[in-house]
Design a protein that fits this description.
Layout: H1 7-12, E1 15-21, E2 27-33, E3 38-43, E4 49-50, E5 54-55, E6 59-67, E7 69-75, E8 81-87, E9 91-94, E10 99-104, E11 109-116, E12 126-127, H2 129-135, H3 140-143
Organism: Paenibacillus borealis
Protein name: Cupin 2 conserved barrel domain-containing protein
InterPro entries: RmlC_Cupin_sf
Length: 146
């Protein structure tokens, strides 16, 4: 029978949990490694909304939609906005340096695995004001047409 590791034992091995209630009402449950990689379960609030646009320099992200729907927004190197509607069971991989964001509909649940090379820095999250300017004004009713 496997033995359960305590939170203290996990910390000694470089693994911690970090949970947050975000300003937009989302709940985020994280399992974080000292090498910069992590797993995040996100539960949207009862109101839809945009997250914060960002990119990573070394991390790749793999998103899975467990329930509900969302819209994935991406800004190309050429500055072109693309939007992709995603529903239960859909997934997407986001490579380093790609500016991206999500609109999470009410009660949507996602899973994100963040992984990368051994030289990933601890705070590999950088805001994308350019993408926020292109997406923040898009309403849920407009996104439902995608």
């Amino acid at each position: 029978m496997p033995r359960r590791l305590s939170d203290e034992e996990a910390r000694e091995l470089g693994i911690e949990t970090f949970h947050q209630l975000m300003d937009n009402g989302e709940k985020r449950f994280r399992l974080i490694s000292s090498d910069g990689t992590s797993y995040i379960r996100t539960e949207a609030s009862n109101e839809g909304g945009w997250q914060n646009s960002h990119f990573h320099k070394g991390l790749t992200e793999f998103y899975v939609v467990q329930s509900g729907w969302l819209v994935y927004a991406e800004l190309s190197v050429e500055g072109k906005l693309s939007l992709r509607s995603m529903k239960r069971g859909d997934s997407i991989r986001v490579h380093p340096l790609i500016h991206h964001n999500l609109y999470m509909s009410p009660y949507t649940v996602t899973h994100v695995v963040k992984y990368g090379s051994d030289d990933v820095i601890q705070t590999d999250w950088f805001p994308s004001l350019e993408l926020d300017k292109l997406t923040r004004h898009i309403s849920e009713s407009e996104l439902l047409k995608i």
